[in-house]
Specification:
single chain, about 190 residues, mainly alpha, 9 helices, elongated
């Protein structure tokens, strides 16, 4: 953590790391304050409840990841790659920034949202942000009806993330093939 990070930022970073390394049960005020290098009073000043801390931790991670991925998508769009090449680039991008305690925390917080209505709205907004990002990627690749196909892309990437994290596979192998398969389906003429 940077020394210039605010107490609030250090608390959020510490909470994400604790969730990713030990699970949501490890997120006690004392553990987070200790990991963040702040007093208990500072923690409760910024986050009066654990739900506030969990909700903001998830939103902070998603905002950061969306910004990184958006920059990557912009470069992808500007390079004029075709969908087949894009699948390989997506796999490469996942290897570059989708592994570690924060990624585990992201997934764990989304699962926690199914049991905690206080976090559910943030989880839903996060998934919607990923859907918008996937829509932008598909649109940049010239995929028709991109908005309709985006949730399938997001679901596939979440599923592959769970698979990678649970097996310890840091290579993201198979991601490009799965993405190509979805793109082929999206490009196929509809049959009713």
């Amino acid at each position: 953590m940077s020394t210039s990070a605010t107490a609030r930022d250090r608390i959020l970073t510490a909470a994400l790391r604790l969730i990713g390394e030990q699970g949501i049960g490890a997120v006690t005020n004392r553990a987070v304050a200790r990991a963040a290098g702040v007093s208990l009073g500072s923690l409760t000043y910024h986050f009066p409840s654990q739900t506030d801390l969990l909700r903001e931790s998830l939103q902070t991670f998603v905002d950061s990841e969306i910004a990184r991925i958006t920059a990557y998508v912009t470069r992808l769009r500007d390079s004029g790659v075709d969908p087949g090449q894009a699948a390989d680039l997506v796999e490469k991008a996942i290897v570059e920034f989708a592994y570690g305690p924060e990624q585990i925390a992201n997934l764990e917080l989304h699962l926690h949202a199914a049991r905690d209505p206080g976090v559910r709205d943030t989880s839903a907004r996060s998934v919607a942000a990923y859907d918008r990002l996937a829509t932008a990627v598909l649109t940049a690749l010239g995929i028709p009806d991109a908005e309709r196909h985006a949730p399938a892309v997001v679901a596939m990437l979440y599923g592959l993330a769970v698979r990678r994290l649970s097996t310890g596979d840091t290579s993201a192998s198979g991601t490009a093939d799965a993405f190509r398969l979805l793109l082929r389906g999206a490009l196929a003429p509809a049959t009713d």
